[in-house]
Amino acid sequence: MEANNSNGINTLRYSDIFLAMYFNDGTSCLHRNHSHVLVYMYSGELEINEREKITRLRKGDCAFIRKDFGVQLTKQAYKGEQFKAIFLMFTPKFLREFYNKLDKDKLPEGARRSKVSLCKLPSNRPDIVSLFESMTPYFNSDIQPSEDLLNLKMTEGVYVLLNTDINLYASLFDFAEPWKIDILAFLEKNYMNDLSLKEIANYTGRSLATFKRDFKKISDLTPQKWIIRRRLEAVRALVRSGKRKVTEICFDVGFKNLSHFSKAYKEMYGCSPAGSV
Questions:
Q1: Which residues are within 8 A (CB) of 242 and not within 5 positions of it... i.e. 6 or more apart?
Q2: 168, 217: one domain
Q3: Could you report the per-residue pLDDT of 14-42, keeping only the tens digit for each?
Q4: How far is it, in rounded angstroms, from Cα 265 to Cα 254?
């Protein structure tokens, strides 16, 4: 168990279960979603920004949030009540172990990954209420659950999801065929973002080694070079439109260093960005 208290914020973490309590009514915290998460709200408010679509979860709400770089979570007090919630964070390791125990002959053939990253669950379902109400004692840091109990709760959480919608098989087990996320489709949407290869691999449901192997099947370039080339293509198109300054475009598409950008652009197009106008 890890506990942290800073700036009025008290958070607890047991294994892959993250319990968060915000005691300062004025506190809010924004972060991006790096793991599949099942969240249950005891009080306060969780604002979920999914590419400018805003959803707010409050007391009694439960939702599955797929790992997605484009999703931002803001935790804050609501009507004078502190933020208090439990997050079950499903790591690739846990999900692979769970998937390996499933009877593959009984997997739903029609499962399809949803285009949205948020799935709100019924708030009054007995299995959901039972799961999360049984975890309330662990908000007291003096009561520490065993690893076996934590694993049981994580397993219950997965079954809550699988019993909600068969399409969540495709979201949870996105490392398995035929549910693997298309690498090029993901990169096309995210090439401007500052992601490490390990993060890209994780978001596409792969280990780093598997990601590199799969990428070789679709491109002669390394992933880093593919991203640079795609950014340069975007710059060229924007420069030719004449609507924005080159320096603004450079940073907006993901380059961090202007001289490195200029050098790469000249190597690819044989002229400076200004010469492309």
A1: 277
A2: no
A3: 887 888 776 555 566 667 778 899 999 99
A4: 14
